[in-house]
Amino acid sequence: MKIKSLVGALVLGSLAACASHGEQPEIVPKPHTKIAKASILPSKDIPSERDGIPADQTGAIMFVCSGSEKHEDKEVFISKCPSCGELNYFYWNSHNSEFVCFACTKAIDNAVVKCPECGRPPRIVRTRPQAK
Question: Which of 46, 47, 78, 102 is buried most, with the most CB atoms less than 10 Å from its CB?
Answer without folding.
Answer: 102
